[in-house]
Amino acid sequence: MPDRFVIQLHDATALHYDFRLEVEGVLRSWAVPKGPSTDPAQKRLAVEVGDHALDYADFEGVHHGGRGSGAVIVWDAGSYRSLAPERPFAQALAAGHASFWLDGEKLRGGWTLQRTSGGAKPQWLLIKRRDETADAGRDPERDEPRSVKSGRTLEQVAREEG
Ligand code: MN
User: Fold this and answer.
1) Is 124:49 a contact under the CB 8 Å cutoff?
2) Ligand 1 mean position to 17 CA, how many Å?
3) Which of 24, 71, 111, 148 is 20 to 30 A away from residue 83, measured at CA?
């Protein structure tokens, strides 16, 4: 089984995209306020947050109470593979630089996560690599807002399940 990735759009206190990669049995997670960009010149802030269990990758619905309350949709999903397979991916993340190939429904191609600061909530940049899948003219957050799981928008999920 290839390792999974998922991006969940989450309407919490501030709208953000939760970018998650399956690494050694858990979902390593980053909150990306603007979402990933397919333009290599648009480096997107990605704040590392706590791991989630693998089965959370399929979650779509509404959380109630607490800091993460609000609707969630599965904005993109698929598999990924490391672009440096000679080294364990967890080791690359520990070193603060990991490159990988996404095979999702919306996002494809090479991407890099680069850590820029440490601390309790390390900050990273999520950057599209320059390859044939890069596209400065695309804006998937604006043009492809629906769930890849259900076809629903965040607003529909909030209304139907809130
Ligand atoms: Mn979140």
Assistant:
1) no
2) 7
3) 148
